[in-house]
UniProtKB/TrEMBL annotation:
This is Transmembrane secretion effector. The keyword Membrane applies. One of its GO terms (molecular function) is transmembrane transporter activity. Its main location: membrane.
Length: 417
């Protein structure tokens, strides 16, 4: 078995262009992932406010992802990627230009707009991959996509931490704006990706993805497993406080904040570099369960650590587990969904995979303020492990699923006219 990164999907030019745009988007967004929480913490002095920023992000992300899913099934997905990508660049520019006069309220508003644009863009992107890549290559394609989406958060936070030592948070937003503008070039060069031909995406149709998911035990179990990992086991909201109070960063942020933020992404990238070890596995549901357990254990141990480098190493291990979870979650969902419904179901999964971390930030920010960082992080990690094991026991279809062997859930019945 080949152990290196599985590059076979990059032989497909259209996928290669989509892949490049994912890399640039992730790199730019990683600068705001450092800048916005840091600026909120500096303005308020409270991790609870950092956690509350999740409320500003989650509503727009949820609505845009669901509506964007309906649009992705109805219109040309290339055009949708261009429109939503351009909107992300515009909001990034607003963050850059207003950084010097920012308030918590203005940051919450711009964060909500940015996450709304991201929700629709990510939905269109995820539903496009199966159009460009044949089924047997989907795990490898998702591994490549996940690798570059995580590579940005490796390099970005490290560069952001270095940049913060010589410049202000304004510089972080400037880099984000530049990258979000440049990634429109490979998207422009994608082939047409027409939808189903419906004239408009009606609100009733936006819920079709959720109805399809809830009607199939295997699919909703995958969604719940991902939520468990991201809500109970996501301590990112506590990184600004930990970096200063536990690991010695100065006010304004520094190396420790950049290292903690980058460590999970580094683990994911390292896992991507050896993706040949796991992209040919067929027990996708079992791999998902084990990956969530590995993530929870790494987070629980991280919460007990008081030295920076061991803490970073645990986050690296956790990030590798998240990478494996991401690859097989996406692959299983894509393989078990008909193309005419992929946009809408991808909208639901965008809410889960991208909205889950925001709920996790809210939970950890609130719990950290009330209980302290150790109890919030370690307790969340152990709860993650317990919850996914209970889920696997209640839904045995999850661990029994074999790609190419277990029949996919049936397509939905045609809607009555």
């Amino acid at each position: 078995m080949a152990w290196g990164i599985d590059l076979r999907p990059l032989r497909i030019p259209a996928f290669r262009r989509l892949w490049l745009s994912s890399a640039g988007t992730a790199f730019g967004a990683s600068f705001t992932a450092v800048g916005i929480p840091l600026q909120i913490y500096e303005l308020t002095g409270s991790s609870a406010y950092v956690g509350l920023s999740a409320l500003a992000a989650l509503g727009p992300l949820t609505m845009a992802a669901l509506w964007g899913g309906a649009l992705a099934d109805a219109v040309d997905r290339r055009r949708l990627l261009l429109v939503t990508g351009g909107a992300m660049a515009a909001v990034g520019a607003a963050l850059w230009l207003t950084a010097g006069a920012a308030s918590p309220a203005s940051l919450f508003v711009l964060l909500g707009l940015l996450q709304g644009c991201y929700g629709a863009n990510h939905t269109a992107r995820g539903s496009t991959v199966p159009r460009l890549v044949p089924g047997p290559l989907l795990p490898a394609a998702n591994a490549l996509d996940s690798t570059v989406r995580w590579l940005g958060p490796v390099l970005g936070p490290l560069l952001a931490g270095a940049l913060l030592s010589v410049a202000s948070v304004t510089a972080l937003y400037a880099v984000n704006t530049l990258m979000l503008t440049l990634v429109l070039i490979p998207v422009w060069r994608l082939p047409p990706l027409p939808g189903t031909g419906r004239r408009r995406a009606r609100l009733r149709e936006a819920g079709a993805g959720l109805r399809y998911l809830l009607g199939r035990r295997l699919l909703w179990a995958v969604a719940v497993a991902d939520l468990v990992a991201m809500v109970f086991g996501n301590p990112v909201a506590l990184f600004p406080e930990l970096s200063q109070r536990t690991f010695g960063d100065p006010p304004g942020g520094g190396f420790a904040l950049g290292l903690l933020t980058a460590a999970m992404a580094l683990g994911a990238v390292l896992a991507g570099f050896v993706s040949g070890l796991f992209t040919r596995l067929v027990r996708h549901g079992r791999v998902i369960t084990l990956a969530v357990c590995g993530w929870g254990l790494a987070v629980a141990a991280f919460g007990l650590t008081r030295r920076l480098w061991p803490a970073a190493l645990l986050l690296v291990l956790g990030g590798a587990a998240l990478m494996v979870l991401s690859v097989f979650r996406s692959t299983l969902i894509q393989q078990c969904t008909p193309d005419a419904l992929r946009g809408r179901l991808q909208g639901v999964m965008t809410v889960v995979s991208a909205g889950g971390p925001w709920l996790g930030q809210l939970a950890h920010g609130t719990a950290g303020a009330a209980l302290g960082t150790t109890w919030a992080i370690t307790g969340g990690g152990l709860l993650t492990v317990a919850a996914v094991l209970v889920l696997a026991a209640l839904v045995p279809e999850l661990t029994r699923y074999r790609a190419g062997v277990t029949p996919a859930p049936p397509p939905p019945a045609p809607a009555a006219s």
